[in-house]
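FYI - complex with guanosine-5'-diphosphate, inputs then prediction.
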Amino acid sequence: MSFTLAIVGRPNVGKSTLFNRLVGRKLALVDDQPGVTRDLREGDARLFDLRFTVIDTAGLEEVTDDSLQGRMRRLTERAVEMADVCLFLIDGRVGVTPSDEVFADILRKKNARVVLGVNKAEGAAGDSGALEAWSLGLGEPVRLSAEHGEGMDDLYRILTPFREEFAEREAMNTPETEVDIPEELGDEEVDPAAHRPTAKKPLQIAVIGRPNAGKSTLINKIIGEDRLLTGPEAGITRDAISVRSDWMGTPVRIFDTAGMRKKARVVEKLEKLSVADGLRAVRFAEVVVVLLDVEIPFETQDLRIADYAETEGRAVVVAVNKWDLEDEKQEKLAELKEMFERLLPQLRGAPLVTVSAKTGRGLDRLHDAIVRAHDVWNKRITTARLNTWLGAMTEAHPPPAPGGHRIKLRYMTQVKARPPGFVVMCSRPDEMPESYKRYLVNGLRDHFEMPGVPIRIMFRSQS
Ligand code: GDP
Ligand code: GDP
């Protein structure tokens, strides 16, 4: 078993051609196999060593009545529901049409995971179409030529993570008390998280921090029983361990490394391992909780991990534990906030929550902060709103003019979420100074209320 891919898009973009290429012509022509629905063709696809199921939504162009729009929509919606991933095709020679926008909308509303394909892009034919495709806000477009077989290696590279993820999903279909020991994700160039939907999967949280910060205590409190992280267990030493639970109505999957530290024998070794292991847990997470001990907050090790989480593009929540031990709460809080701003400026606006893992106080606030951070991390802003904002920003502070020629910002679009990523089309992107980029990043953060998540901006030129 593997994943299911639906090829969607308006008529004539090349869906059938691609379907045929993926399943092999002979199979594809068999339209009336038992079990194959009338409008949705299904086939076993093969792309190099990748096997998956492919659903084709083509064949509607022959329908000429006025219900075409409605039928297309229903068919696409059904395909999206059946599939794990959608390959949304547009015609690179034509560019983005209003009809494409309708499909993009359906996919967004359905919260589908989308790979955007720009077809008919053999040679340089799809160059401008591929650039335009960014404006759909569905991530980086892949150039393809279904007819000539070009771009199949890129498609392979993008689809490969889904195979691993599917295996992971199977593993997750186990009872809740089970401990998941994830395999290391490969170093794919494509971030599988970029295509991950939010609705169905548990929110992935890593709890990291120095030994004795209280990670095990916290996680046990969250999952509600001492079922996992107390005793050492053979075989799990080096791995990030995860446990799934329902936390105040939110399905979560929590990664922790406490099990291994419990059995480490030498102190120095213990410190070293916990850092490496914490870093590893970050890679599995969507939200990283940096757990600090109120008596020794913001140690070098904590700072390193928090910085790593930001670099990896994760949402960060800082939790200060053992708050029950603190007498001067007011003063301490002010001091912690000051340290946070000074020592971790890259996490500007990230929430800082005080908790007591032991008594359970503050855990509701921690929960809310995590859910909010996750929402912000998933946030999408429309191109229209972005450009209104960009206009105001450039008016307030025009971009610099290196060598006497002002850099022109043409337009901006969000190309990804998790974390939010933006492309600004402009003249001379290479000369854009870091300071102006920072001005835009901070402005975005404030105006669109995206505190505490990494924000990426890329500058591209139109030509
Ligand atoms: P569908 O309606 O989306 O299934 O589109 P089809 O697969 O029927 O293709 C529509 C037309 O585009 C056909 O004439 C194909 O030969 C042509 N076509 C499909 N893929 C490509 C391609 O990669 N390059 C070019 N130039 N034409 C293509
Ligand atoms: P870990 O190494 O990060 O997993 O930390 P543990 O969960 O094993 O906790 C280390 C020690 O701190 C234990 O003795 C806990 O009882 C204690 N501890 C954890 N959370 C709290 C807390 O909120 N308040 C107090 N006073 N002690 C705590």
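The chain has 14 helices and 15 strands. The mean pLDDT is 79.
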